[in-house]
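Submission checklist for the structure archive. All mandatory fields must be present; incomplete records are returned to the submitter.

[x] Identifier: MFS transporter
[x] Organism: Pseudidiomarina gelatinasegens
[x] Residue count: 445
[x] Sequence attached
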Amino acid sequence: MSHSAAREPWYKDFAIYREPRIWVIFGFGIISGFPWVLIGSMLSAWLQEMGVDRSAIGLFGVVFVTYSINALWSPLIDRVQLPLLNRWLGQRRAWMMFCLAGILIATAALAQLDIIENLWWVACAALVIAIFSATQDIAIDAYRIETFGPHEARLQSAGAAMATAGWWTGYSGFGAIPFFLVDGTTLMWQDAYFVLCFIIAAQMLFVLAASKSIRYRPEMPKFDHWLDWLRSTLVEPIAEFFRRSGWKLALGMLAFIFLFKLGEAFLGRMSIVFYKEVGFTNDDIAVYSKMVTWWITIIFAIIGSFVNLRLGIVRGLLIGGIAMASSNLMFAWIAGVGPDTDLLLAAVIIDGFTAAWSTVAFVAFISLLCNRAFTATQYALFASLGNLGRTLVGSYSGYVVNWLDGDWQLFFILTALMVTPSLIILILMRKPLLRLEQNYHREID
């Protein structure tokens, strides 16, 4: 924990949010979270209403594996300059604009497809959105980390909180729109996709209005051979992390990153299917799962950043992980009771609180691990590993529900237990991680 943070009154932490850079990060968080609506909750609801099997709906989550392997092309976002766009917008925003254009085109294609007759093409469009979104996230994360100097630990923590709040605004806040449109009007799901194209266009305008990344260094080293380029851009960032941490601690941290969000991923992938099978309407999902979760997550993401600043990132991860596992049991309760909106409200409030807290700590944790010489590449590697468990393994959640013969209560109990291995690893690594965190704060105080 930062000594300077401990000396100052807690209410002075709120002054951080007067910083304009924080709100730019919030806007980019919205852009990052919005594609998950297009290929996540919205697509799952559309598939479920068309009678597609749970296992097939779960397998659609395979497209999210792109978020897990985007580290493979993350050096491109550091090294490759897009013609015209780079000169006009700068390295980070140029890639954001390029990716948003791809997302817009694929979303417009979804608005023209019949999901039963063109299921293969729907999957292809979802994959295209996932690829561009995962690439866009590399640039957004690098922009966020580069926005604050190494001496601005408070702003970096607040940036992580606002990135989380923005992501949930894009996913939950804007994610409620298609559910309201389909239930409250005569529009079909394809029409809802067309409406969301205008939101993507607005996001492109936001990218244009933002400032350039002020700490990105566009000078490119010259290499005599392509192997030298590969070694510099991909091998060296990995090697540097292991040299700096030691291989035992490095492997432990990587295992923790892979396992921490596994249970949450299983729950999230099947949540919309669960709501609809239990008997909740699209309006219920829009109000409780989207709108309420949106505000709860924003509030507790900000509060979580303060708590983590005071307790430290490692303690925040431990507390957040325990709370995250416990909150999954609320959904097991709903499975036994049925479509009770009061119980759903309580569940999404608790789940939003625990998800926000744990996510802010998680983002701050992997940001802490990055060497600024390899910002985009190292952050993408860590984030990709965390997404690998969430996406690849989570894609089989539908098979697990079918294997349990639709026993949703047992399914959610299993998701609560999935966080246990990561917490055990965190406890075992607690002392060296606390030293790492203390050394970091000692350097910047």
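[x] Structure attached
Curator remark: Residues 111 and 202 are 18 Å apart (CA to CA). The first helix runs from residue 3 to 7.
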